[in-house]
Amino acid sequence: MTDKKPMRILSGIQPSGVLHIGNYFGMMKPAIALQAEGEALYFIADYHALTSVRDPEALRENSRRVAVDFLACGLDPERATVFRHSDVPQVTELAWILSTVAPMGLLERATSYKDKLARGMAATVGLFNYPVLMAADILIYDSDIVPVGKDQKQHIEITRDLAVKINETFGHVFKLPEARIQAATETVPGIDGQKMSKSYGNNIDIFGDEKDTRKRVMSIVTDSSPVDAPKDPANSTIFKLYSLMASKNEIADMRDRSLKGGTGYSDFKKQLFEKLWEYFAPMRKRREEILSDKSYIEDVLARGAKRANEIADQVMQRVRAAVGLR
Ligand code: ADP
Ligand code: TRP
Hints:
- The protein is mainly alpha-helical.
- The chain folds into 2 domains: 8-187 and 294-323, Rossmann fold; 208-279, Tyrosyl-Transfer RNA Synthetase (Orthogonal Bundle).
- It has helices at 21-34, 46-49, 56-72, 90-99, 104-108, 111-118, 125-139, 153-170, 210-218, 237-245, 248-260, 265-279, 281-292, 296-323; strands spanning 8-13, 39-44, 81-84, 145-147, 178-180.
- Helix 3 (56-72) crosses helix 13, helix 7 packs across helix 8 and helix 10 packs parallel to helix 12 (265-279).
- Residues 10-14, 45, 48, 134, 137-138, 146, 148, 152, 155 line the site of tryptophan.
């Protein structure tokens, strides 16, 4: 394609629970930064969340809440198109078309499906087909860049494979998107040191209340080094989390004090909590403002849906024509 359109940036987030700081540093923060670099489209992936959420009220409420929280964290609806996945139902049609060229073996190799089964989720066709719907999400907007956490990298590779399949079969239909993964925050650890994830119960939420957040931080798992002993910052979840929010000098100071010994983990945890609470304070304030205007979020989502549909309709016309529908 020879168009000189601005770079199109797309990402989605599932409304399957409350957002945590792993989501923030792994996906939301880079996505927010990218909104200045092109045309950004960010959506609340409620179709995807149907693979795990069975309570309709909870799904509706979470979708709204995730939209509010994302805006509170800095998404600017004047710059970015913010919308609900299910407001663009054409994406399920594209998922069907992609599924007709998707090799079974490609999906069978998808690690997130296997991980989800290992965590006890039922082996549904929807869960298996998740990467195909995700490919449709990306391709239906002619997306160039997809900011996501590292665990989503394979899904972007599958998206490219499916786009190539369609292009080889039907001529040039899709451009190939690229994942944008933040090297510095590839995987944010949770309070047990594993990858932070709501499904592991090791999360620190962005908008948790003060008491609960402090409790979560104070329960970060550490080794049993005594106060006097030097502590290796490279192995410390406290240090890793602190480094995401603190200034260079503050980070260097914590590193020195760790290596020197004489400071206990509980002091470092207190310092981390203070930093975390201060870091998200402007976002908490913005969130209160958004919540105080009852129609604001619905207005933003309605505007977003309109713009997203304009693009999706155009691309779907091209796809239908290419494969022989209409
Ligand atoms: P969860 O694992 O809590 O269910 P999701 O899978 O819904 O989180 O992730 C939403 C987005 O946040 C994805 O782009 C994902 O890569 C990113 N993300 C989630 N957890 C982390 C983490 N611990 N570190 C970095 N990025 C993360
Ligand atoms: N699968 C992503 C997650 O679980 C969410 C998602 C759905 C997404 N569709 C997308 C991300 C398209 C980027 C692009 O986090």
